[in-house]
Amino acid sequence: MSQVIWITGASSGIGEALAYAFAKQPDVQLILSARREAELQRVAQATRLPQERLLVLPLDLSQGDTLPQKAQQALSHFGKVDIMVHNGGVSQRALAKDTLVTVDRIIMETNFFGALILTKALLPSMLARKSGRFVVISSSVGKFGTPLRSTYAASKHALHGFFDSLRAECWRENIKVLMVCPGYIRTQVSVNAFLGTGEKQGTMDEAQAKGIPAEVCAERIIAAIRADKEEINIAGAKEMLGIYLKRFFPSLFSKLVRQIKVT
Ligand SMILES: NC(=O)c1ccc[n+]([C@@H]2O[C@H](COP(=O)([O-])OP(=O)(O)OC[C@H]3O[C@@H](n4cnc5c(N)ncnc54)[C@H](OP(=O)(O)O)[C@@H]3O)[C@@H](O)[C@H]2O)c1
Prior knowledge:
The protein has about 260 residues and is α/β, with parallel strands linked by helices. It has one domain (about 5-235): Rossmann fold (3-Layer(aba) Sandwich), CATH 3.40.50.720. Helix content is about 45%, strand content about 15%. It contains 10 helices and 9 strands. The protein has helices spanning about 15-25, 35-45, 65-80, 100-130, 150-170, 190, 205-210, 215-225, 235-250, 250-255, and strands at about 5-10, 30-35, 55, 85, 130-135, 175-180, 185, 210-215, 230-235. The strands form 2 sheets. The protein has a 7-stranded parallel beta sheet, with helices on both faces. It has a two-stranded parallel sheet with strand order 7-8. About 40% of the residues are buried. It binds NADP nicotinamide-adenine-dinucleotide phosphate (NAP). NADP nicotinamide-adenine-dinucleotide phosphate binds near residues 15, 137, 184 and 188.
């Protein structure tokens, strides 16, 4: 039976790589979303899927009021959504004291409320069909906080709280949740990250440039879906050490993380 997969943030990075990886699966129908329609069209064409198995659905995750209608469009086009990949997001490269509250709100609206609103719009149809899966792209920073990422970390922690609760509420109806915690992945995320005033950083961080290829990340996400996992880390040794130290030796983690250079 055909699987309808909706990916946000499909115009770049992890979302783009996921579109190509899903397109290789048999009998898949893809819905590709992000703000830049031309980039979505480029990705759609590069998947080599026939037109009738593709829907380009531009949207802005920070504009919550517009999202329920987008979900209705998605549902009416293919009749269902089997897998919703909440991937679209924006990062931060500024201290909390230097980040405008307007910028904090855009990060939360984009990374957290956008996913929440789309989820609530899709849930009734998934519950009625007793089938559905949410794949939520969090971060290693969804597991611990670091300097220069305060609101970004908050938005990713919020996703864990919401979707862990949702999983516990909806398991009887066969609704699955996979939380994905990537470390450094080689994408445009640092280039697009907000400075405190809302401008883009515009440069690639060294750690990002040396990160895990987005294609590898996408393949690991698809393997985790197949294995019915509830949470995975896709990260280098440093981020993995952070996750384990925060969990088992939180005071030591606190002393180490404050050494990260912030200038
Ligand atoms: N790369 C990493 O190291 C890393 C690590 C941990 C977690 N992540 C997470 O992975 C996800 C994907 O990021 P990436 O690394 O692939 O970065 P990316 O190359 O910058 O891609 C971000 C994607 O999100 C979309 N997006 C941003 N703001 C949006 C908005 N307001 N509305 C709709 N779409 C929006 C962008 O498309 P448009 O600009 O066309 O809207 C783009 O497709 C994010 O949630 C990020 O937090 C990344």
